[in-house]
Amino acid sequence: MEIADLLTPRGVIAQLRVSNKKQVLQEIARRAAGLTGVAERRIYDALAERERLGSTGIGRGVAIPHGKLVELPRLVALFARLERPIPFGAVDDRPVDLVFGLLAPADAGAEHLRALARVSRLLRDGPICQKLRGTDNADALYALLTDRTESHAA
After folding, report:
1. Can 66 be counted among the known catalytic residues?
2. How many CB atoms are located within 10 Å of the residue 106 CB?
3. Is the dihedral of CA 26, 44, 20, 119 positive or negative?
4. What CA–CA distance (Å, rounded) separates 75 from 102?
5. Active-site choice (31, 42, 66, 81)
6. Could you tell me which residues come within 8 angstroms of residue 130 by beta carbon, excluding any fewer than 6 positions away?
7. What would the pLDDT profile of 16-37 be if each residue is shown by its tens digit?
């Protein structure tokens, strides 16, 4: 599974201006609703419910909020580079500025886990994150995230 199988150029937000976790989840839900046709509130509720179980901030300025929705026919991803880092309750207590949202069909079990693992491996790569933080151009961000020459195979 490649990131390009999950993420489209329309799913990249280059300069998201938010001040807290709730706003991040709301904006991801808003954008995802436009991509999927699923109600924004349903998407937000799925993401918020997962966050209540524990923060999806994996450390080093990265968060991977995710949720499952019965209405989705396939996995869908969004990526946001925040204008400024925000508190997210991450495992290392550092603020987050790179957010990769992942939405999966309710019955996506192993496929959902493989996608989460793939995204996590990509965003644990220091040089990739440095490049992502170094541009505020959506096309450049998409290219960095979907570059198949990187060695991040699932």
Report:
1. yes
2. 13
3. negative
4. 7
5. 66
6. none
7. 999 999 999 999 999 999 999 9
